[in-house]
Write a structure and sequence with these properties.
402 residues; alpha+beta; Rossmann fold; OB fold (Dihydrolipoamide Acetyltransferase, E2P); 2 domains; 6-stranded mixed sheet; 6-stranded antiparallel sheet; 11 helices; 21 strands; 31% strand; binds adenosine-5'-triphosphate
């Protein structure tokens, strides 16, 4: 049993008189055996959090507990926590065997035979048994990464801390190691905090993910919760690739009025806004439907127009093979005349839609884009707080309300 709790943890640094708040009142519980991914943009406080848990940084305010015992004052070697660094941090003058043994010598009082046995067993499990007598400089990046992991695993710690351990690997190896790490963590059942700035890694690896920004916890939940029920605009924009589209609007009556479009709301969506007037409308690229023209959409003739279909023009297409990212702009913007026509592409208000790879559209083509109301997210434009998230068919998926 190893449950790790951060309770109101804060940390700041002084940088030539400037006070930098690295971690701001962070409270988080990592459950026994769980793989929790701490994710956020560069500088949001991920590494500092991990280093405080490991004992490499002091905890000036708040508490860190392991199974209910405060560990803030314990030196790193007695914490029963093993850390894997992005740089692997292997000792260059030691062989793989010596690197793996070293951690054991520092943190346990096992007999020499027992240490050798453990090193060999772990090396076998990690597929590096034939590398035991090599030096790190004679290993590939992937092999060094395995050794760094092996060195953590051999200690049989209560908690693993991993700081971007895959970021030095090429894309293919990274994807392979991601799966391998997940399987390993599940088999070992060791409580793990995994830090990354890569939202794909967070989505694919985490039992739960905790999203940080500016040292503050934005949301903690399963990847699916964070994706479909983001707590705020930051999370909505950070999780998902391509990013959610956002449109700034003002509520007039029951209609959201944006720069080049108007979006009427149902009474259910309208009531979620209370008295908020400045509203950010969000929609994920895969939720926008494109019909080449109205006759292409078989449901169209039977459907009452609900004001959620928009004339748009295809700006740029990014073919990805399995799908296409299509950038559109509202035709209304083009109709405004030469000033808009004359603008550079990036200045136009484009939004992105993902289409199946076999669907083709042409740059410059006019298409009707439909933004179904059940898919939209509404945020308070001032605070960023989510006021309404998309409606989900939750049959078979457990997605509790916030
Ligand atoms: P990255 O993904 O780039 O590693 P991070 O989310 O891990 O970023 P931290 O390394 O925890 O972020 O840094 C959080 C903030 O604290 C940053 O603004 C950083 O510049 C600052 N910081 C971290 N360590 C120190 C230090 N020793 N002295 C001064 N400022 C620091």
């Amino acid at each position: 049993m190893a449950e790790l709790t951060l309770d109101g943890v804060s940390k700041h640094f002084d940088d030539g008189g400037d006070r930098i708040v690295a971690v701001d009142d962070l409270s988080l519980t990592i459950r026994d055996g769980e793989l929790l991914v701490l994710v956020g943009p560069s500088g949001c406080g991920k590494s500092t959090t991990l280093r405080m848990i490991a004992g490499l940084e002091t905890v000036p305010s708040g508490e860190i507990r392991l199974d209910g015992t405060v560990i803030d004052d314990q030196p790193p070697t007695t914490r029963d926590i093993a850390m894997v660094f992005q740089s692997y941090a292997l000792y260059p003058h030691m062989t793989v065997r010596e690197n793996m043994r070293f951690g054991l010598e520092e943190s346990t009082d096992l007999s020499a035979d027992e240490m050798d046995r453990r090193v060999e067993e772990t090396a076998e499990m990690m597929g590096i048994a034939d590398l035991l007598d090599r030096k790190p400089s004679d290993l590939s990046g992937g092999q060094q990464q395995r050794v760094a992991l092996g060195r953590a695993i051999v200690r049989d710690p209560k908690v693993f801390l991993m700081d971007e351990p895959l970021s030095n690997l090429d894309a293919k190896l990274r994807a392979q190691m991601r799966t391998e790490l997940q399987r390993l963590q599940e088999d070992l059942g060791v409580t793990t905090v995994y830090v990354t700035h890569d939202q794909t890694e967070a989505m694919t690896m985490g039992d739960r993910i905790a999203i940080l920004n500016d040292g503050k916890l934005q949301q903690v939940g399963t990847p699916i919760e964070a994706y479909h029920r983001p707590a705020n605009r930051f999370v909505a924009g950070f999780i998902g690739e391509p990013s959610m589209n956002f449109f700034e609007t003002t509520l007039e009556g029951d209609t959201l009025v944006g720069e080049h479009f108007e979006y009427p709301l149902s009474s259910e969506s309208r009531s979620a806004l209370d008295d908020v007037k400045q509203v950010t409308l969000g929609v994920r690229p895969e939720d926008v439907e494109i019909v080449r023209d109205r006759s292409d959409d078989p449901g169209q003739s039977d459907r009452e127009s609900d004001g959620h279909d928009f004339r748009t023009v295809v700006d740029v297409i990014e073919p990805m093979g399995n799908e296409n990212n299509v950038y559109l702009w509202f035709a209304a913007a083009r109709d405004e005349g030469p000033t808009v026509e004359g603008q550079a592409t990036e200045e136009r208000r484009t939004f992105v839609v993902t289409l199946g790879g076999m669907r083709t559209v042409e740059a410059g083509e006019e298409v009707v884009a439909r933004i179904p109301e059940e898919t939209i997210h509404l945020f308070d434009a001032e605070t960023g707080e989510a006021l309404r998230n998309r409606v989900l068919d939750t049959s078979g998926v457990s997605i509790p309300n916030r």
